[in-house]
Specification:
- The complex is a heterodimer of chains A (318) and B (286).
- Chain A folds into 2 domains: 53 residues; 244 residues, Orthogonal Bundle (MetI-like fold), CATH 1.10.3720.
- Helix content of chain A is 77%, strand content 3%.
- Chain A is flat.
- In chain A, 39% of the residues are buried.
- Chain B has 2 domains: 103 residues, no CATH class; 157 residues, MetI-like fold.
- In chain B, helix 5 crosses helix 7.
- Classes of the chains: A mainly alpha (318), B mainly alpha (286).
- Chains A and B meet through helix 1, helix 3, helix 4, helix 5 and helix 7 of A and helix 1, helix 4, helix 5, helix 6 and helix 7 of B.
């Protein structure tokens, strides 16, 4: 008698356990479904299509069939002078941007972490440009470079600046883009430094002061090493965001003015992201745009891997 | 404090104020030049406006200008941002929760996929995305291109990676026992999630909202591809860009259009600056 009931009980338990597991599975998929659906719609499926299409002759115009062409697009992309030019000026732009943004952001961070009365207001003031979209602030600065700068330069007697528009020459226009993106992101990067500077222990600095370390020695031997991890973060943030710059490029220069490169007249300030775009929208060669985008992607993956490596290595050392 | 230090502090206070003013001059220039006629701007972009009533006239011009369609664009931007944010936060929190609490290989593989996708630059998926949306639309009849639905799905898809990652990280710190207690008390999974887990997520929820909100509000390339240029559904950045294409010589109207585009975001920043700065910095460090 008891054995039967025991067995029945076991079966019942096993059944409810099975039912529970099945329920768990259903719940798992119900909860995951909306996010996974949208994610697949815009990332997984387009990524797969995108990789495949980089090996075809996909064009932005109507075509009877899309055919496999192997690595042709990649070879063509590397032979394309506009792509080479975009890679060069994107590197220059990125280098200047990293230096300028970080130097300014770190200096501002030192100012707003000292004992100033209005430091919270100042932080907010420096941060504000960062919440404005790249398109809109590009147009604001277009006005500044085209109207405001010539006007004050003329009044101050700098005839060179009043007669030559910064956006009128491809070299100065690239620097104009550096100025705009520095203005946009310095306040943001500043806040990351602020967080790091606030973590520097006060008693450590005081102890050093008592031991006779002067301001420069404290800065060099305590503050800088303590802020090093933040440098890794800000360096990669500015590196990746400069490399991907698109919005300011569109609104401030729209790729112009033209310049000579390898004996050809090309648009002088087209960064990589814009070059990829234009390969499809202007040259109508979407497959080649895909090939360039994949190369672009691989470079960014390399940056990320280096960042992970550097961060991990530092964690081990600590 | 010694005299020398007080003087030094006052000098840096004045210096910082000067720097803040320098930083904000571009925005100030927008305001004063939106209050002038085009001739006045070309003569002296620095001068204060002769009469602020010009600002009202300029604003009326912009609002009635069919080329910018400001009120419609504002409405669209609000609808798209609000629905995308609601979707991103709830769906990502739900996904992050089951991905964390289900300990299977499949579950961790899906989580890795979401996180790994963060390195994919938009340029790789943008043209295939438009193509795929077109194919999907053709098969199912669900409007994906030039529609609210399509762009909201797109934002949920692109926003889910970072959001799931952040929710996942935060949820690790919530003790499992709270949920088990609720379960023992007869709470189903849905009830447990919406009544117990979701309220605990509030601090990270605000961060995720802000990070995605600022991105979506300012985004340009995705709406340009999914909604198209000059179609009935335009967002504010698109509207400003369309307007610039047609009116870049009339700086008075351009400045007014920019001013109107700035007002909502600057107003929001002033209201919630503490949360915004904190949220955006947290998002970056992760």
């Amino acid at each position: 008698m008891t054995t039967i009931t025991q067995r029945q009980q076991d079966e019942k338990n096993a059944n409810s356990l099975l039912k529970d597991q099945r329920n768990q599975k259903i719940i798992f998929w119900i909860f995951l479904a909306p996010a996974l659906f949208s994610f697949s719609m815009v990332q997984i499926i387009p990524f797969a299509i995108g990789v495949y299409y980089s090996f075809t002759n996909w064009s932005a115009t109507a075509q009877p069939s899309i055919d496999f062409v192997g690595l042709t697009n990649y070879f063509e992309a590397f032979k394309d002078p506009t792509f080479l030019y975009a890679t060069i000026i994107t590197s220059i732009y990125t280098l200047f941007n990293i230096i300028l943004v970080n130097v300014i952001a770190f200096s501002l961070a030192l100012l707003v972490t000292s004992t100033l009365k209005g430091r919270n207001i100042y932080r907010a003031g420096f941060f504000l440009p960062n919440v404005i979209g790249g398109i809109i602030l590009g147009y604001i600065w277009k006005f500044i470079f085209n109207q405001f700068v010539p006007s004050i330069a003329g009044a101050a007697g700098f005839t060179y600046l009043s007669e030559n528009l910064m956006l009128g020459d491809s070299k100065t226009a690239l620097m104009a883009m550096v100025i705009v993106s520095t203005w946009q992101s310095a306040g943001y990067i500043m806040m990351i430094y602020v967080a790091a500077l606030q973590n520097v222990p006060k008693d450590l600095l005081e102890a050093a002061q008592i031991d006779g370390a002067n301001a420069w020695q404290r800065f060099k031997n305590i503050i800088i090493p303590m802020v090093m991890p933040a440098f890794t973060v800000t360096l990669f943030l500015t590196l990746v965001s400069s490399f991907k710059q698109f919005d300011v490029n569109v609104s401030l220069t729209n790729g112009g003015p033209s310049t000579m490169f390898m004996g050809k007249a090309i648009k002088g300030t087209v960064l990589l992201a814009m070059n990829i775009s234009e390969t499809s929208t202007i040259s109508l060669n979407t497959a080649q745009a895909q090939a360039k985008a994949i190369v672009f992607f691989l470079v960014l993956v390399t940056f990320s891997l280096i960042q992970v490596y550097v961060t991990k290595k530092r964690e081990v050392e600590l | 404090m010694s005299n020398k230090r007080i003087i030094l502090r006052n000098i840096s206070e004045v210096l910082t104020i000067a720097l803040v003013i320098m930083f904000l001059i571009p925005l100030f220039l927008v305001l004063i030049n939106a209050s002038k006629t085009n001739n006045e701007i070309i003569q002296t972009p620095l001068a204060m406006p002769t009469s602020w009533s010009t600002l009202i006239t300029n604003i009326q011009n912009i609002l009635s200008n069919p080329n910018i369609g400001y009120s419609q664009a504002l409405f669209n931007s609000v609808i798209i941002t609000v629905f995308s944010l609601t979707g991103i936060t709830i769906f990502s929190a739900m996904a992050a929760w089951v991905l964390l609490r289900t300990r299977t290989k499949l579950s961790s593989a899906i989580f890795t996929l979401f996180v790994a996708a963060m390195v994919i630059p938009f340029q790789v998926v943008m043209f295939p995305l438009v193509k795929w949306f077109g194919i999907f639309q053709g098969f199912t009849g669900i409007p994906m291109l030039r529609s609210y639905f399509g762009i909201i799905v797109a934002y949920i898809g692109f926003g889910s990676s970072l959001s799931i990652f952040m929710f996942h990280g935060f949820m690790k710190s919530i003790p499992h026992e709270i949920e088990e207690a609720a379960y023992v008390d007869g709470c189903g999974k849905f009830k447990t999630f919406f009544l117990i887990v979701l309220p605990i997520l509030k601090p990270i929820y605000v961060t995720v909202l802000i990070l995605n909100g600022i991105w979506i509000w300012n985004d340009f390339l995705l709406p340009m591809l999914v909604l198209g240029k000059g179609t009935p559904v335009q967002t504010i950045p698109l509207a400003v860009n369309n307007f610039a294409g047609a009116f870049l010589v009339s700086w008075d109207l351009m400045m007014t259009a920019i001013l109107l585009a700035l007002i909502p975001i600057v107003f929001f920043f002033i209201l919630a600056q503490k949360h915004i700065i904190k949220g955006m910095v947290e998002g970056s460090v992760k």
